[in-house]
Specification:
mainly beta
């Protein structure tokens, strides 16, 4: 009699993951906005390209006692290029986000792992995966409409200026229904790369993920911007370094 054994699970894996979000709407279109250094000028909303809700609690065991690791109803999104892998989209605590893998490609998820994420939402991870576990019962993900996604907005962060240049970053502002860390229900994650625009010719035209923004005036402390129309459907993807 032949015995078929499940493949051994790794102790750790060093694979970086990303998830694609898409522009779903506009913010402040037609408005002229003045922001101080360190403040955001919002211009668009984004949602996960794929969005799922966990149908049942995911249990793990500790000292032979089961406990709920991922609660029923948790929102998850596919990892880019992997329909057999999904991660939760909102931080619930710590730097590890919980993920599931459909190792036998039958549409249900049999394996749990955690990946390191340094943002409030799952845009990507550093790929330091660990805590691989086989689930006692496979989990099911149900596709849901994008309207059930958390509120995430994109903005331009004024990082100040010199006599020659304006410095800024693209950031995501996440609204939460409860406090996870700190003392506020909103948090900001910014792209690692600072962008620099010359003040030699004004206004400065910025195209960011399908949105047209014009920087019309810059002082040592203030930046005034005009937000043009946003083309929905543009993809927002970044690396773990955001």
């Amino acid at each position: 009699m032949l015995a078929f054994l499940a493949p051994a699970l790794p102790a750790r894996a060093d694979l970086r993951h990303t998830a694609t979000w898409v522009v779903s709407g506009e913010e402040n279109v037609g408005q002229t906005i003045t922001r101080k250094r360190g403040e955001l000028a919002l211009f668009a909303r984004i949602v996960p390209k794929s969005l799922f809700r966990l149908r049942e609690d995911v249990f793990l065991t500790r000292k032979d006692k089961p406990y709920v690791e991922i609660p029923k109803g948790t929102l998850m999104t596919h990892v880019d290029g992997r329909d057999d892998m999904a991660c939760e989209i909102l931080r619930r605590g710590g730097s590890a986000f919980d993920c599931l893998s459909d190792t036998d490609h039958d549409g249900r998820f049999e394996t749990f792992f955690a990946t390191q994420v340094f943002n409030e939402i799952f845009l990507g991870s550093i790929g330091d995966d660990g805590h691989f576990r086989s689930l006692p019962d496979p989990a099911t993900l149900d596709a849901v409409e994008s309207g059930e996604a958390p509120v995430v907005k994109l903005g331009i962060l004024n990082e100040g200026s010199s006599k020659l240049e304006f410095r800024y970053r693209i950031c995501a502002l996440i609204a939460r229904d409860k406090i996870v860390f700190g003392s506020d229900t909103t948090s900001v994650s910014c792209l690692a790369d600072r962008r620099v625009a010359s003040l030699a010719s004004m206004p400065i035209a910025i195209n960011a993920y399908g949105s047209d923004i014009r920087v019309v005036e810059v002082t040592s402390k203030l930046a005034t911007m005009q937000v043009g129309h946003t083309r929905s459907g543009g993809e927002f993807r970044t690396s773990w370094s955001m």
